[in-house]
Amino acid sequence: MKKRDGSVRLNVTGSAMSHVVISLMGSLSLDTMPRVSTDMKSHVQDLKPSRLTIDCSGVDYFDTAAALLIATFKEEAEDGGLPVELTNLSSHTRKIMSLADVKHLSGGLPHPQEQAVRPVAGIGDMTITAAREFRALITFLGEIILAFVHSLAHVPEIRWVDVASNVRRIGVQGLPIVGLISLLVGLIIAFMSSLQLKPLGGNIFVAPLVGIAMVKELAPLMTAIIVAGRSGSAFAAELGTMVVNEEVDALVIMGFDPMKFLVVPRVMAAFIVVPLLTLYADLFGLAGGLVVGVLGLDLTFMTYINQTGNSIAVSDITTGLIKSVVFAAIISGIGCHRGLRVERGAEGVGTATTSAVVTSIFLIVLADSIFAVVFHYL
Q: Is the domain of 151 the same as that of 286?
C-alpha cells in the first residue's frame, strides 16, 4: 500500500494486530512532515500493530523538524504500549535525530511553586549583589569626581549648552509640579496642626511649625523626590538608550570621554537647580500655611509673616540647602550610573529607569535621616 504526499511516499506492509513496517521515501522536511506524521498515526490506529518498524532507507532529505516529529511520534507510541524501531538510518539522519530532545521540549518550564525554596541562598545572593552594586557605585562616584575636577580646571571644555538645556529641563519645567506639591503640603501641615493647637488656643504656633518643618525637612525632601522621579529617571532612560544604540561606544571611538561629555553636564545642572528648587518649594510651602492661617485661624497676614520670620533662622535655611546639594548628587549620580550600565535592549532601559528612581529615593531618605541626627547633635 503506497501513499503519496508531494515528494514523500509511505509504504505500509504488514497486517492488523501484527508486525507492521512503514517505509518512508523522499524528502522529510518541515513542509512535508506534519502530513506524514498524521498518516502514520492514522495507519497505527487502523492496523493496531503489535510492533512497528519505521524504515528510513528511502529518505533522501531529513531536517530537524522531521527528526522532532518522528521522535515525538515514537515516544507517544511507546507510551501507548507500542514498540517502535527506527531502521536504516544514515549517519546524517542519526546526527539530526540525536538533536531531537522531546522530553526537554515537552516538559515545559518549571512552575515557580515547583522550584526549591532556598531562603539562606537567596539572602546570600542578595548580599553579594548589593556588595557588587555598592562597589560599582563607589567606583562610578570616583570617576565622576575626577571628571568634575578636570572640568572645573578646564572650564572652556565644559559643554555649557548641555548644562543650560538640563537646567531648563530639571528646573524650569519642574517649577509647576514642585510649587503645587509644596503648596499642598504646606496646607496639609497647617490644617492638621491647627486641629490640635486651636482647641488649646495655640493658633499662633501654626506659623512656626509650618515654617520649620518646610524649610528644614519637607521642602528639600519633597523637591528631591520629585526631581528623582522626573529627572533621575530621564537621565537613566536617555543614557541607557544611548548605550543600547551604541552611541556611547561611538563617542569613545571618536575620542570623547562619556563621563565629561554626558555625565558632568547633568551633574552640574542638578547642583545648580535642586537648591534653587528647594528655596522655591520653601516659599510655596510657607504660602500654603499662610492661606490656612489667614482664612482658617483668624491670623492677620503680617502676624503670620512675623511669626514665621522669627522662628526661622539662617541656619535652618542653610541646613535645607546643604541637604539639597547632597540630594542633587545622589539623583544625578544614580541616574547616570544606572543608565550607563544598561546591558539588554528595551527591557534593560526600563529596568535601569525603575532602579534609578527607587535607589535614589531610598538613598535620599537615608541621607535625610543621617542629616537629622547629625544636625541635632551639631
A: yes
> Which pLDDT tens digit goes with each residue over 200-220?
888 888 999 999 999 999 999
Let me know the angle formed at the C-alpha of 157 by 156 and 159, rounded to the nearest 5 degrees: 100
Residues 166 and 306 in one domain: yes
Whether the CB-CB separation of 97 and 85 falls below 8 Å is answered with: no
Do 24 and 164 sit in the same domain of this protein? no
The cell for 276 is 534653587
Question: Do both 158 and 212 map to the same domain?
Answer: yes
- Who contacts 200 (Cβ-Cβ below 8 Å, separation ≥6)? none
Q: Does residue 126 lie in a domain region?
A: no
CB atoms within 10 A of CB 132: 10
Indicate if 82 and 184 belong to the same structural domain: no
- Domain that residue 204 falls in: 143-377
Strand-pair category, 2-5 with 8-13: antiparallel
Q: Judge whether 274 lies within some domain.
A: yes
Helix (H, G, I), strand (E, B) or coil at 123: helix
First to last CA, the chain: 99
Q: What is the three-class DSSP state of 162? A: helix
The total number of structural domains that make up the chain: 2
Statement to judge: residues 21 and 168 lie in one domain: no
The rounded distance, in Å, linking the Cα atoms of 177 and 226 is 8
CA dihedral 204, 210, 213, 218 (to 10 degrees): 170
Claim to verify: residue 76 and residue 178 sit in the same structural domain: no
Is-contact 16 43, C-beta < 8 A?
no
Q: Are 330 and 244 in contact (CB under 8 A)?
A: no
CA angle (94 as vertex; 92, 97 as ends), nearest 5: 115
Instruction: Give me the percent of the chain exceeding a pLDDT of 90.
Output: 31
Please state the rounded mean pLDDT for residues 247-275: 89
Residue 119 lies in a domain: no
d(CA 267, CA 252) in angstroms, rounded, equals: 20
Question: 193, 210 in Cβ contact below 8 A?
Answer: yes
